[in-house]
Amino acid sequence: MKTTNQGTFRGMVTAMLFAAGIATTIATGGGGGSGSPPPPPPPPPPAMLAITADNALDVSTALIVGIGMSFDIGEITGPDVSGEAAVATPRLLSLMRIGDLPSKPLPIGSAKLEGCLVSGTVDVTGTLADPNTLTVGDRIVAVFADCDDGEGFVISGTVDITVSAVQGDFMTEVFLLGLDVLMTDVEVTEGTSTILAEGDFELTLDSLSFPVISQRIAGSELSLAAQAEVLTFTGLDHFLQGNLGLTPEEIFATVEGRMDSQLLGGFVDYETPVGVEAVGDDEPYTGEILVTGSGNSSVRIVVNDPTSVTLEVDTNGDGVIDQFIDTNWAVLNGNTSTINSSTAPVVAREVIHAVTGFGSLAVSPGTQFQASAPFGMIKQQAVVGDFGPLDVSCAAAGTASVSGSIATAGVYTAGDALSADFSGCARTGEVLDGVLEVAISGYEELPGDAYQLTGTVTETGFGRNAGGNTYTGDGVLDVSHDYRYTSQGLTSFSGSAATFTVGRGGIDRTLSGVSVNSEIIAGPPPVTIVRDSSGSLSSPVLDGDFSYQSITPDSFLFDADAETGPFSGELRVTASDGSTVTIVAVDELNVRLDVDYDGNGFADTMINTTWAALQ
Fold first, then answer.
1. What is the pLDDT of residues 141-174, one digit of tens each?
2. CA–CA separation, 575 vs 584, rounded Å?
C-alpha cells in the first residue's frame, strides 16, 4: 500500500479489479399511470462477511487496493502529497480552472467551456461570492468530457464541489481548504486502467503546517469500480500525510470505515490501530490494519517491513490467532503473478516472445539506413527539404513509401525526420510491413556504408518477419545503432522504451521499462548475435506482471529459424511473489527451465524442453 502518488494505485487496478457499472443509491421507483407495473423489489442489503483462513488474503487484497484507489481519487482531487514544492493548487481545482482565478475570474452563475490542454473539454459553472477567490459556500460544478490536461490521466463525468472551509490562501503553499464533493459517473483512465467512481464525501486539504501537508477523504459513500468488482466504502475516513521537509519524505496514513465487495459478497469494517508509515517511494515499513467481519472474525494486516506483511487470522472472534499468513505488498497490491511447475513453460514462452520480438523490432530501424535499404536509397538521391511521399522499390520485393525532412542533401544530420510505410518490403533476412518513423538525434557517416545512428523511433503497426518469426510493434523507443565496424566484423545496437507493445500470434504483450543491447559478430559465417535484455511484461495469457533480466547474455545465430534459439545464455524471470524461472540455453535446440518456487536461489524443479516447444 504505497501512500505516495506515483501512480501506484492506478497500476493495481489492472491486476485484479473492477466492474463496468456502479450504483451508489437504490432507486425507489415511483409514480406511473394506471396499469403501470409495480417497481421491482430492491435487492437485499449486503451481509457482513465472515472472515476465514481461505478468504483472508482476498479480503486484505481487496481492501488494500480499494484504499489505494480512494487515495488515487484524492490525488486527482487534492494536492500532490509527496510531490514537488508547488503543492498548493489542488489538482481538481486546476482541472476546473479555479487555479486561474486571480488572472481569469470565473463568471458567476454562468458556464465556461474550455478545451483541456491535450484533448477533451471541461464545462465549468460557478456560483461564487467573489469571482477572484474561494469563500465558504461557493459552489463549482464541472462536467468533464475526455479531459486530458497532461497529468497522466483522462477524466469524464460530473464533479460538484461546495467550499466548506477556507484558511490561508490556496494560491500559496500554506492553506486549508474543505470541499464537499459529489461525484457522478466519473471515469478516470490512465493507460489501460480505468476507475469508475461515484461518491459523496468531504475532502480536506491542509498545508497550514507546510512542509507537512495532508489530505483527508471522509464521508457517507465512495464507490469505485473497474473490470470485475465494485467496492463501496461507507462511513469512510482516509487520512494521508506527507512531510516534504525530509528527504526522502515521510508518509503517514490512517483509515477506517466499512467496505462492501461485490465479488466477495459482503462487507467488512476496518480501522488502523497502528498508523501506517512509509519513507519515500518504498512500501510501508510499519503499521496495522484491523479488518473485522461477522461474528467478530478478523484479519489483522501487520506490516513487518517494506517487503513483508503478516496476516493474523482469527476465524471465530475469540482473540486467538487461528492462522498466520505470510505475504508481501506485491500480492496485497493486487499483482498476483506466480511461477510454479505448471505456469513456468507459459511464462517462459511469453517472455521469450517479448525479448525476441522487442530485439527484432529494435534492430530494424537502423538497418534501413544501409545503402540498399529505403532510407539509404533516399540519401543517395540527394533529396533535401520537406519531401514525399516517394515510393522506392525494396531490394528483393515490395515497396516503401518514404517522406520526411532532410536539412542537407546527401547526408543525414541531427533534426532530420523520416517516415516509411512498408508494404511487403523484402531484403535479405527480413520482410517489413507498416509504418516506421525516425527522428534523428545523431548521425555519423564513414566510407563503405558505415555509419552510427541515434534517434527516437515510432512504430505503428510495424511488422517484421525474420527467421520465420513475425512480430508487430507499436510504441516509441530510443535507439542507437553502430555500424561503423570500428572492430573487424563487429556492430551493435540498443533500444529502450518506457512502454511498448509486441504482437505475435494474435496476442499483444505490453512491455514496460524494456531495453535490449546487442552485438552482432559478422566475421566468417555464421553471424552470431549476443543479446542482453531486461524489462517487465504483462500478457493476456498470464496473471499479473513479470520482470525479466539477462543473467548472462544469450548468443544465437543470425540465420536461426523458429525451431531454434540461443545456444548459450541465461534469462531470469521473476513474479510478484518472488518466485522465479531461469531460462537456461543448453544448445540451439534445447533449453532448461529452473523453477524456484520461493525465490531463495535454489531450483525446486527443472524442466527440460526445446526452443520449438516454447514458440
1. 888 999 887 766 788 999 898 999 999 876 677 8
2. 17
